[in-house]
Amino acid sequence: MKLAFIGIGQVGAALAGNLAALGHSVTIAARDPSSKTVTEALAKYPALAVAATEDAIAAAEVIFLATPFAAVSAALANGDAFAGKVLVDCTNPVGPGLTHGLDSKRSGSEAVQSLVPQARVVKAFTIYGFENFEDSAYPGYGDLKPAMLIAGDDAEAKQVVATLCQDLGWEPVDTGPLSMSLHLEHMTLLWIKMARVQGGGAGFVWARLQR
Ligand SMILES: NC(=O)c1ccc[n+]([C@@H]2O[C@H](COP(=O)([O-])OP(=O)(O)OC[C@H]3O[C@@H](n4cnc5c(N)ncnc54)[C@H](OP(=O)(O)O)[C@@H]3O)[C@@H](O)[C@H]2O)c1
Q: DSSP H helical segments within the chain, as ranges?
């Protein structure tokens, strides 16, 4: 697929690099092609391409949003360009003291959707640290795959993202409409507190047992 990344830092580079290695055509939508994160991502993952933001977005079928949450309105300023596109929201609104950045009143993904009403927003790749997007392998559990919880209002867009999750080694778990993102954002806070504050380390994820 033709993929574009807005934001190519810890999360963006890990996902972009692995998706390019799987054979996808991955372009960094760069506001500044000489920025540190763009330069470092290209050095680490030479299969990535780079293009001006509007060209990369126009060409892409799926766009990953991986900027700080505070930057989303600037990053999505040209809203019309996203009409009909699948937009994977990888951002998390995090407030002071590891609280929900929108006071748990509304999810960040719904705020993103309101900036680009014609895009098909799917929240994914948010509930763990970037280390798990670099390497999703948890050997020793047989066929059990680590779970990637996703949410979105557009079933077809969710299926596209679910397939990308599978390609990257995850079991996609559809949690329902985009409003469920609020709960995913709280899962993120849980993971961050366990992994980074309490010292549990980044090497754990959740899996789903189903009967
Ligand atoms: N870090 C994690 O473990 C983790 C895990 C899950 C989700 N998240 C979420 O994922 C998002 C990205 O986190 P990160 O750790 O990857 O951040 P990061 O390493 O700081 O990278 C942020 C990227 O966003 C770009 N950017 C900033 N403002 C922009 C704008 N206005 N327009 C376009 N691009 C812009 C930066 O470009 P420049 O280099 O040009 O500044 C950089 O490439 C955040 O919302 C975070 O909450 C993070």
A: 10-21, 36-44, 53-59, 72-75, 108-115, 131-134, 155-167, 181-192
Residues 6+ apart with CB under 8 A from 155: none
Contact 137, 169 (CB under 8 A): yes
Q: Is the CB of 206 under 6 A from ligand 1?
A: no
Query: Which DSSP letter does residue 154 get?
Result: -
Fold of the domain spanning 2-197: Rossmann fold (3.40.50)
Domains in the chain: boundaries: 2-197
Tell me, using a 6 A CB cutoff, whether residue 90 lines ligand 1. Answer: yes
For the chain, the maximum distance between any two Cα atoms, rounded to a whole number of angstroms, is 51
pLDDT digits (tens, 9 = 90+) for 127-139: 999 999 999 999 9
pLDDT at 208: 98
